[in-house]
Amino acid sequence: MPGWFSASLAIQASYFVTAVLFIMGLKRMSSPVTARSGILWAGAGMGVATLVTFLYPGMSNYGLILPAMLVGAALAWWSGKRVAMTDMPQMIALYNGMGGGAAAAIAAVELYRGGAGGYVTGSLAVLGGIIGAISFSGSAIAFGKLQGLITRSIRFGGQQIVNLLLLAAALVLGALVASHMNAGAGVVTGFFVLALVLGVTMTLPIGGADMPVVISLYNALTGLAVGLEGFALDNAAMIIAGTVVGSAGTLLTQLMARAMNRSLGNVLFSGFGDTGGEATGAVTGSLKPIEAADVGVMLAFASKVIVVPGYGMAVAQAQHKIWELCQLLIDRGVNVRFAIHPVAGRMPGHMNVLLAEAGVPYDLISDLDEINAEFETADVALIIGANDVVNPVARTDKSSPIYGMPILNADKAKNVIVIKRGRGAGFSGIENALFYLDNTRMLYGDAQKAGAELIAAVKAVG
Amino acid sequence: MTGMVALYIFMLAAFTGYEVISRVPVILHTPLMSGSNFVHGIVLVGAMVALGSAVTPLEKVIGFIGVLLAAGNAVGGYVVTERMLEMFKASGSRARKGTH
Predict the structure, then answer these.
(1) What does pLDDT average to over chain A?
(2) Strand A335-340 and strand A365-367: pairing?
């Protein structure tokens, strides 16, 4: 080997290539045409970085590293392959939490060892450790909530003060550890326990409807924690990848919160999101049920139908049935469009993923801005398991928690058909004024079953 | 790496992340969140180094958990992102066929 070559140079060069591949990969993932190749680029970068890390000078414990990698990879592969598309949000939360936990574990190994580096390195390791630990336990709670393992949002008086005290205590212990004063193993343990508890108490009061924002926030936090641990380990690949994810994730979180007309602080600290309970603004009128056969006729003879999917469609896995129904209508010459609210479902783009899975072409799917003017010319607005995103109260009632949120103007359509499992209010707990309008009819039932009935009804029209 | 150089890298990487995502259509938000979730799976290399240099049993146990979690982040993130984007490819080609 030539004299200039060393394992260290090979590692640094490979990490550089990895950083380039990650950034190019993310760039490609931000356009529908190149998105699929983007993950392949990023995957190649990960492969290069992982392989070359085995050459790290002074590495030992290969007998532990390989089994840990194999077990973690196998479990994640198995769970990632078999999870249903509707459950993607909580899987992202789970994998994200694992990343945060790993960042915290790196910090823990360094800090229990007694911090080989100086104050700066120690402080960065501590900061990455607390953020990683919060992301780990917080993501676990988010997973539990979306998976239905945790159904209640636990709130008590003075919760924010308790959280602040926990944070302050964790930071004090962290400062002790970072400054090498008195940093016994007990202090390090106390530091991590406090951070983990803080992640739990921060996430428990947040309602299910706000979970997408929370998951996105923890995604950004994990990125930041990875970047900070990268500084502590002097690892360029971790610094760049972690920081890029940290800032991209922060922007994505802001975009999501804005689409819901909420500030991030509001999401984290107001405790709104799944109870609400007290119905604001009395709604007049009554709910008017309709039979599937009547809806079938209405759809078959319409010239323009706009479908508004929501979480109800996702839960019922009804996207295939709905697309089958729409294809029947398109064959009859009906102009069918899909209107997607930015926060329909549990994540931005959640509905697009499901519709793409069912095979709905892009050009039939429109954003809120593109389609809102078209509701006035639509004969039927078909609402499938969506609720708050079509509630006209957001335009009119200043006292409503969702006042000011941009909504789909489904109420402007000539007829509104709402497919809904039962009479319950939406995730926000607010009564939906749309359901009580004169031009609205309710088709009760699971979206999958209702879809099948509508297909039969349209076919029966002949 | 000196402190100032590290700070510059941090600043430039932060701008890069912001720019990469700022012109993304809403339909790609979930796949992109998943993709960035995969990218911070790079924590795996740090966890490998941490476990690789672990000496005491405590360090080894924590390092082992770290590598296991990090491998889960990387592989799980890849698998779910790839599955989501696979569907976009399929629907994209169908849409193109339709317009011809």
Answers:
(1) 86
(2) parallel
